[in-house]
Design a protein that fits this description.
5-stranded parallel beta sheet; globular; 13 strands; mainly alpha
Length: 1021
């Protein structure tokens, strides 16, 4: 007797308990129940597999009989339920009638499956809380409940499918358990149990990897490497594929003794004592009549809560042996003075001997910065020193100021400072003083100062400030226009206050009217002025404070079309090296004419860029600067594509290209990050390259950019860029570049569903390639034509094109393109039902893609390999292939393809009885493809997900999805998915009881299948 057979009810008496994780057991206290015939056991197990859910009689019939059920099957199921109620104590309360079926009602402690799930859940929670030992214990307890397949494997097809799903969960828990024990420092003791599991499940790569790791950490490196060889041979022999990427990486790490696979030490906890509190020094006495010269505090001060908390906290912190100095830097108009004054009013009571404000006029129109002598005189007078007691000479006045300040607890606001030299003589020596400095420049050479850089206001704070300054009534009356106005002001408090002031002074103006005036970028800065305040004047002060070389750099850098720029693209614009460019960028950052969204990147505020663009002159050489920028981006994109797409064909990028310094792009992650960062800039640069007549650069850059756009699934942009490339290639008159550009436009048309347009341009490209005997492009164009004809359902013609392309790629030794064409051919053969040939081509494509490291293409070939295996009835092989594809998926790369994988994984999970997992993947597939997939891919995914819903007993939802797929596919002329949608609509209509509609859809589907020569096997998905 063990915990599996013991369960107490709420009354304290023994409750009935069932164990289904193995042979069926029923217990009442210590007495094992006799549950009756095999039919009764199957009915009971089917109910217990879905505790708390209604199971229809039809499903119980399917579970009870493997072959054709007898005509009296439903009646016999009801008799079996009645018998079970009699055999089980309290059976009438445990098995209840519910509509068209029955429901098993159990507490958590009455079923081993419940307990298994509960321990797995507790383990997840323990892992999330960092309690690894506790998590391992919970998983061990869950695994101890497992005794084998449901009904010991004798349950028939329905129960076996559910048992397979449970076995998958069991293995997942086992893998999690051994992973935790490995992380806890165990190794040698895990070898034997892991080897036993691997023997039972030889194709599970996660288990094999854990065994390799346990062997390696036990000092058995050679045996660990041998395990990889075994599983590689097994996968090749059984499935015709190599081990997945994760297992291969582990093998390589073990081979080179990488630190990432080194043995883990046992967990330990190190405690730390709390730091001792810092004592506060005694405060000096207060003055009887302290000076207070702070400006008034803005009643509508808004936002800056985090910054305000930091300043107030600094002002209230204990002394540190010297005055506390806090600097606030930010661009002109960002609200530095308002924040400092607001904080000073908050802190006034903390500094009872005086709160003094001094405008140092560092950036004031028409005025010179104040000198130290003038400021010291003002401070001394504020502290009560009369003119006749004022010492002669600056040094003696500074000494007097320092002596007085040393005996006072003062709050000093030095506003609008120009540099550290202006500030240093003014700093008091007393730790009882607080100094707040505002400046457009962060003074890194001011020792002892802490700096707080003001960012732009957030959207919410900007809207709140506008509402408070303009009035809630006008803001609420035009919410859309108000949101536009906030956006146009770009989070700059000065701009927001100016626009509010203009609207208050012009009550007849609507907010939309002012928005329309600001929409003209050439007049935007002119509109942002009110009285003596002007955004343009504020920016002009910063600009005029620079040397001419810095001004010229400021004007040229505004030519950069991206949201951000780095030192490399800046160097190209400025025509110098990266060190000079970095100096210019950092200077502009220091005076807040540039922002730094992240380390190494710089950006313009929209209003600052507008100001810089308005300053351009012919002497700046803007055209030449942009041509240098185009040249740089061609070189950089070539380097990125060399990393991401190493097998691609290369084209001449022009002679005499400068050896530009490039950012680090040593691996896929860095190259992808570069492309992602430069995305917006690249689009504009391609346009400008064509407009400036740099057509070769335009074509080559466009092609490189399109590789990335395809990878990310930006197919509409892919189409727009491909058209620009064709235009430039025609002007250039370079046949190879025109051919490849036309071919890429053909691919764009395929993604966009313009199949006939794609065929036209692809045929033109093929004719040009044949005429010039450019065989690589000829092979590429054959692939594109095959792809386009397959979408139109011209499968025989598509196969001819693809087979010709494959032969030519193979002859030329272009393995990457051969793999792509093989995968496309596999898809056509799968659609037509020729699954054995489809599997052969997809397996070869997968082999090539793995060898080349083409992750995205490997996902595609693995998916078609899985679908071919499914067509052949080889579910386990399909599961392994699709699992590997799923492991490789990254939703940021080719999201439409990822959704396609998820949809088919949902379908496969459903076949294995994993209904909840199937529902989750199906829903996610639809979310992903709806948000980021093209109509072509949306139709395919919707058809697959519809089948999942149909088999879940949701024909209405299935009908909706099939209709949606039909609308998309028929509008595109995508005949295979149109036929599949009609076929699915027929099945859904039949399930809904509409035989007439079902027959109409079935006939329409059959007509399309016949027209496309789809075999009978290809019609039953």
């Amino acid at each position: 007797m063990d915990e599996r057979s013991m369960a107490l009810g709420e009354s304290g008496h023994f409750a009935v308990r069932f164990n289904i994780l193995g042979s069926l057991e029923g217990w009442h206290g210590e007495r094992r129940l006799k549950l009756g015939s095999p039919t009764q056991e199957r009915v009971l197990v089917t109910l217990l597999l879905e505790p708390g859910r209604m199971v229809p009689v039809s499903r119980l019939v399917a579970a009870a009989w493997d072959d054709e059920p007898p005509q009296t099957a439903a009646h016999q199921v009801r008799k079996a339920v009645a018998a079970l109620r009699n055999r089980i104590p309290g059976g009438s309360e445990l098995i209840v009638t519910d509509g068209i079926g029955y429901r098993a009602l159990l507490d958590a402690g009455q079923l081993d499956l419940h307990q298994f799930n509960q321990h797995a859940r507790l383990a997840r929670e323990a892992v999330a809380a960092g309690r690894a030992v506790e998590a391992a214990d919970e998983l061990r307890t869950a695994l101890d409940l497992w005794r084998g397949p449901v009904l010991a494997g004798a349950g028939g097809e329905v129960i076996s499918a559910a048992s397979a799903a449970l076995e998958e969960r069991h293995m997942t828990v086992a893998e999690q358990y051994h992973e935790l024990r490995l992380e806890l420092g165990e190794a040698a003791e895990l070898v034997a149990p892991l080897r036993e599991l691997v023997t039972s499940h030889p194709l599970r790569e996660a288990l094999r990897g854990q065994l390799m790791l346990a062997l390696y950490r036990s000092g058995r490196q050679a045996e660990a490497l041998e395990e990889f060889g075994r599983v590689r041979d097994l996968l090749v022999e059984e499935l015709g594929i190599d081990p997945g990427a994760e297992l291969t990486r582990l093998y390589e790490a073990i081979l080179r003794d990488s630190p990432e696979v080194a043995p883990r030490p046992p967990q330990s906890v190190n405690g730390r004592g709390a730091p001792a509190p810092v004592a506060q020094d005694d405060l000096p006495p207060k003055l009887e009549q302290p000076p207070r010269t702070l400006p008034y505090d803005l009643p509508d001060f808004t936002g800056r809560e985090a910054e305000l908390r930091r300043i107030v906290a600094a002002g209230r912190a204990p002394g540190r042996g010297a005055a506390r100095i806090l600097g606030i830097d930010g661009m002109g108009g960002s609200g530095k003075t308002a924040l400092a004054v607001h904080a000073a009013h908050r802190l006034a009571e903390e500094y009872p001997d005086g709160q003094l404000f001094v405008d140092l006029r560092g950036f004031s129109p028409g005025e010179k910065p104040q000198e130290a002598g003038t400021v010291i005189d003002s401070l001394l007078r504020s502290l009560g020193v009369p003119d006749d007691r004022m010492p002669d000479g600056l040094e003696r006045r500074i000494t007097l100021w320092l002596n007085i300040a040393a005996q006072r607890r003062l709050l000093l606001v030095f506003d609008n400072a120009v540099n550290a030299a202006q500030i240093r003589p003014l700093l008091p020596p007393s730790e009882g003083c607080l100094v707040l400095i505002t400046s457009r420049i962060r003074m890194l050479d001011l020792d002892g100062a802490e700096w707080l850089s003001l960012e732009l206001l957030s959207g919410d704070d900007s809207a709140a400030l506008l509402a408070r300054t303009l009035g809630e009534e006008r803001s609420v009356a035009e919410p859309g226009a108000t949101a536009q106005l906030v956006q146009l002001c770009g989070g700059l408090p000065l701009a927001l206050r100016i626009t509010a002031a203009r609207l208050r002074n012009r009550p007849r103006w609507t907010v939309q009217y002012l928005v329309d005036r600001l929409a003209d970028e050439t007049r935007r800065l002119h509109e942002l002025s009110a009285g003596e305040r002007s955004v343009e004047a504020t920016l002009r002060l910063s600009y005029q404070a620079m040397e001419e070389s810095r001004r010229a750099a400021f004007r040229l850098l505004a030519e950069h079309p991206g949201g951000t720029l780095d030192v490399h693209s800046a160097a190209a614009l400025l025509g110098g090296d990266v060190h000079e460019a970095e100096d210019a960028l950092e200077h502009l950052l220091d005076i807040h004419l540039l922002e730094q969204p992240e380390m190494g990147l710089y950006s313009f505020h929209d209003l600052v860029r507008t100001y810089a663009m308005a300053l351009r002159g012919d002497e700046d050489g803007a055209r030449e600067a942009v041509q240098r920028l185009v040249s740089y981006y061609v070189t950089a994109s070539e380097a990125a594509c060399d990393v991401l797409f190493p097998g691609r064909s290369r084209y001449d990028t022009g002679a005499g290209r400068r050896p530009w310094r490039l950012p680090e792009m040593a691996d896929d992650e860095q190259a992808l990050r570069w492309f992602g960062r430069e995305h917006d800039a690249l689009r504009v640069v391609v346009e400008r390259a064509g407009a400036y007549g740099v057509h070769r650069d335009a074509v080559v850059l466009a092609r490189n950019f399109m590789f990335y756009l395809n990878l990310r699934g930006h197919h509409e942009e892919f189409g727009a860029i491909s058209r620009l490339a064709v235009d430039s290639a025609r002007v250039l008159g370079d046949p190879p570049l025109l051919q490849v550009s036309l071919g890429n436009l053909g691919i764009a048309n395929w993604w966009l569903g313009a199949f006939q347009d794609g065929i036209v341009v692809a045929e033109e490209a093929l004719q040009l390639a044949s005429a010039t005997d450019h065989r690589p492009t000829e092979a590429f164009c054959l692939d594109v034509l095959g792809l386009l004809h397959s979408a139109l359902g011209n499968f025989e013609r598509a196969c001819v094109y693809l087979e010709q392309g494959i032969a030519l790629h193979r002859e030329l030794g272009v393995a990457r393109m051969e793999a792509e064409a093989l995968a496309n051919l596999s898809s056509v053969l799968t659609w037509t039902g020729r699954y054995a040939d489809a599997a052969r081509h997809a397996a070869r494509a997968t082999e090539l893609n793995r060898r080349l490291g083409e992750r995205g293409n490997e996902i595609t070939s693995l998916t078609w390999l899985a679908l071919a295996h499914l067509g052949l009835g080889e579910d386990e092989r399909a599961r392994v292939c699709l699992a590997q594809a799923l492991e490789l998926c990254d939703e940021t790369l080719q999201p439409g393809n990822v959704a396609f994988v998820h949809a088919h994984w949902a379908q496969l999970c459903q076949r294995l009885g994993q209904d909840q997992t199937a529902a989750e993947y199906a829903d996610h597939a639809m979310e992903l493809v709806s948000a980021r997939g093209m109509p072509l891919r949306q139709a395919a995914v919707a058809n697959v997900v519809a089948l999942v819903h149909l088999r879940r007993g949701e024909p209405a939802r299935a009908m909706d999805l099939h209709r949606h797929a039909h609308r998309l596919a028929s509008a595109l002329g995508y005949r295979i998915e149109t036929a599949r949608a009609l076929h699915g609509m027929s099945q859904a209509a039949e399930a809904l009881g509409d035989d007439t509609e079902a027959e109409a859809h079935r006939k329409a589907a059959e007509e399309l299948y016949d027209a496309m020569d789809v075999t009978e096997a290809g019609r039953h998905v």
